[in-house]
Amino acid sequence: MFRVQRLNLPEGGRTWTVLGRDHRVVGPAEEYLEYLRAQRSSPNTVKSYARGLALWWQYLYAFDLRWDAVKVADFGAFLTWLRTGDEPAVTSIEQRPARFAESTISARLGAVMSCYDYHLLNGVDVGRDLHRIIHRGGSRYKPLLEHLARRHGRRRSTVKVREAGRGGPPPVLTPGQIALICDACASWDAETGEWRGSVRNRLLWMLMAETGLRLAEALGLQHRDWHTGRGDTPYVEVIPREHPHEIRAKSGYRRLYVSDELDRLYGEHLWRLCEVGADMVCEDFDAGYVFVNLDHEPRFAPWKPDSVYDLVDRLHRQLSGRVPSEWTPHWMRHSHATALLLSGTPVHVVSRRLGHADVQTTLNTYAHVTDDAEMQAMANWKAFTASWRVATDAVTDSDPSIGPCS
């Protein structure tokens, strides 16, 4: 009865809102979502928060609660409702799986809590018991000048979801496994002097393994973002922009140097695109996407993430027993960061190359890597990264005019 509705904006973008039982916009939810848009939050963030708020207002309606007269206990009951879906006066004794994963429940609760924080700051008398002040936290890490900035303790959510830990370091692929995946897509035939297979598919995996790009960032690359060598060091630019499939670069602008081998493979891919007429179909080929449909309609349209995961499924079957059965495209990013750190690259350079907003994110995620000498010896990471170019100049990468940095 309460649902998320997609809206097409006049300037061509998309956003989402929450509609009620009367098919009208839910005012308090829309007010908060508009605040997110004003803060230039990504469309995917707005969509995720809208989903959480739609579930919250559905819960309020089912339990006959006013949105501005809820108590802490109501938020706890909301978590139970998300897991079970039981209506008022119903307590099921049947063992059944939860409706949502705990990570999803945590995200939906976070959206609701943020909405109430926003209204509280704007003078609406809601949510005053949703946080408590903690004077001594359990985390050892403290931000710079924490002792000066925090005189009255930290605000901590009263209601929260205790998620299970990730259970160890992020998963990685060894250089040999990455080579198997790339060769399964396309391989060089020395006798004919030609590539056999899908150069596009091989280019995607080599690019992600060599740059640490997220899948959305790789699929968002346009030809004008790839600056081929021509005597200089080749590099790609990650530029946030709207994408037809609603994917976007998450970390803002950055410049990433690549190897000559990867640059030559891109040249082969470009030549093949022109051979089948992609440059004649696209009005502005420079603004065309690097990764496009080649075998399915609409031909030369931007490649969808779903299509990439279909490719992953095929590679799972083809390489069964030789690579981890559960690997995903994001493993390439983890493998890239691991390779750089094991090769001795400073952590602040790795952080900048990955597009992390804070070097602490890199430290928290990959703190185990530098001590893992066994992994380093097994995977031969130094040889794997020998041809990669990673600038170590301590300059910002937020502005293209500042100069080369990774």
TrEMBL record:
One of its GO terms (molecular function) is DNA binding. The keyword Glycoprotein does not apply. The keyword Protein transport does not apply. Residues 23-120 form the Core-binding (CB) domain. Keywords: DNA integration, DNA recombination, DNA-binding. Pfam families: Phage_int_SAM_1 (PF02899), Phage_integrase (PF00589). Signal peptide: none annotated. Residues 168-380 form the Tyr recombinase domain. InterPro entries: CB (IPR044068), DNA_brk_join_enz (IPR011010), Integrase-like_cat_sf (IPR013762), Integrase_catalytic (IPR002104), Integrase_recombinase_N (IPR010998), Integrase_SAM-like_N (IPR004107), Tyrosine_recombinase_XerCD (IPR050090). PROSITE patterns: CB (PS51900), TYR_RECOMBINASE (PS51898). One of its GO terms (biological process) is DNA recombination. Belongs to the 'phage' integrase family. This is Transposase. It comes from Arthrobacter livingstonensis.
